[in-house]
């Protein structure tokens, strides 16, 4: 048989148009223009280079040589493979480019999906097992970074009142470690939880609350985050299992630098919808378990909606990190029954905690 192919002599980059002919014991390569023989390769010394299943035209070589023969036409390669057993790989038809790209895309998508499954579910179960001492160190260091330029309130009786309630709620949930609540002067009207049972309240939230049950409701909600280890889970999900390994393995300073640069920690501590719903439910349940008024969570959300009728969470849809406020009101609605969470004197002291 004769094939139309390209021949590279291994010394120059120039390609010659050639024909390959199978003769007795040899593959004879002749120039297409003048039929001059350029190479004679013994059939037993022929090899196919590369990946015949994926390369469009894998080259043929003589074992130990540098010259290459490239046969572009698949049918011609198939016929040559049928005549010369060492070239049987040439009979393979490479997969189409489109199919290879689709397969690569599917593989990458599967790997990304697997990675996020590991991050999502792995951190869900791994994070709570981190030693409490490490979580507390991380929380304390992050707290110092976040409030370095803010004024902390030091009203003794007010702090005692809110810390006492926080620890009563935590014990009711079976949480074994101490809760520490800090009050920062000013706004926003917000509160958040750090690793290690550290809670931060802004005084604007306390001052603008309509009654003590609203502050107790927000506090119970934050305890819900604590007992389900949401802060450390959020950090792990945001930055990956590598940071958990750093925390356990001694890369504590590297971890802290990563978290506290550019406000990263605030992004990591922003709870997702599932965490918020869980904290809402736990907060109501804990207040009811202690026979305290449990209508404060819904009352706080109602006040938020009064102040901001356009619910940002509803407007953002699936992109919101919080459930819609109306949904949260409906889920936490309770009658105004039960004992007050604070005595009149404690509530007055808490309202004046920054004075």
Query: How many helices does DSSP assign?
Result: 15
**Distance between the first and last residues' Cα:** 101 Å
Succession of helices and strands: EEEEEEEHHHHEEEHHHHHHHHHHH
What is the CA-based Rg, rounded? Answer: 36 Å
- What average pLDDT do the residues reach? 81
Strand residue content: 5-15%
Q: How is the biggest beta sheet arranged?
A: 5 strands, antiparallel
Question: Which term fits the overall shape?
Answer: rod-shaped
Helix content: 40-55%
Uncertain segments: 312-320
Structural class, from secondary structure content?
alpha+beta
Q: Order of strands across the widest beta sheet?
A: 4-3-2-1-7
Number of discrete domains: 2
Number of strands: 10
Strands, helices and their partners?
Blueprint: E1 2-8, E2 15-23, E3 26-31, E4 37-42, E5 46-48, E6 60-62, E7 68-70, H1 74-83, H2 97-126, H3 132-146, H4 156-172, E8 180-184, E9 191-194, E10 198-202, H5 203-208, H6 212-227, H7 230-239, H8 241-249, H9 252-260, H10 264-268, H11 273-289, H12 296-307, H13 312-316, H14 325-332, H15 344-351
Parallel strand pairs: 8-10
Antiparallel strand pairs: 1-2, 1-7, 2-3, 3-4, 5-6, 9-10
Helix pairs in contact: 3-9, 4-6, 4-15, 6-11, 6-12, 7-8, 12-14
Can you give a write-up of this model?
The protein is an alpha+beta fold and 355 residues long. The protein has 2 domains: 2-91, PH-domain like (Roll), CATH 2.30.29.30; 130-351, no CATH class. It has helices at residues 74-83, 97-126, 132-146, 156-172, 203-208, 212-227, 230-239, 241-249, 252-260, 264-268, 273-289, 296-307, 312-316, 325-332, 344-351, and strands spanning 2-8, 15-23, 26-31, 37-42, 46-48, 60-62, 68-70, 180-184, 191-194, 198-202. It has a 5-stranded antiparallel sheet with strand order 4-3-2-1-7. Helix 4 (156-172) crosses helix 6 (212-227), helix 6 (212-227) crosses helix 12 and helix 7 packs across helix 8 (241-249).
